Amino acid sequence: MNHAQVPVIRKPVVAILATGDELVQPGETPGPDQIIASNSYGLAALLENSGAEARLLPIARDNEPSLRQAFALANGADLIVTIGGASVGDHDLVASVAAKVGLEQSFYKVAMRPGKPLMAGKLGDTAMIGLPGNPVSAMVCGTVFILPMVRRMLGLETAAHTLSAPLGRDIGANGPRAHYMRANLREGAIFPDDRQDSSLLSVLSSADALMIRPPHDPPRLAGEAQQYIPL
To answer: Is the dihedral of CA 90, 92, 97, 103 positive or negative?
Structure first.
């Protein structure tokens, strides 16, 4: 083709930092009040599939020394993604420790479900997103917020890839927050699942779309056009 020079962009490195005393790695035996850490691996797959290089960091415990060490390990990444610890409980220390190591917070909390306690800012020259620890919230926020950032880093379009499809069944009114509903596409129509509890990762795994409902959206009838993000 005789192209002596071609434009290239390296893969952005995304450091993934899960936090919480309640987490153990897959293959380990969880104790009382502990769960298997799944969010890191779901997000890593999401990011790798989108062209990023995921760097999985060790789980940070709910104390300042552990979190400081974890942030030090994230040095050199293009984007830091923390999971959990972004709320306001006694063990939610991510925001306060991040501030001590230099985080300039841009915003905290978004009017959406699932995923209200989301944090964003800049740590030195590195962007940082603090995701909720809930599995569905983490994956939905990863799709809505982090993937557009990765596309920007890759020099691609940044807008979320939204499509439209007719609603497959009647649905009631939405509440005060935008709702990204797990849904399935069948025979050209979109069907939101009846189960939208944010702890149900199985519903997300079987969904192929996030149907977007604006805040205070009125009841909708089957056949009305709905916006969605394909999964």
So the answer is: negative
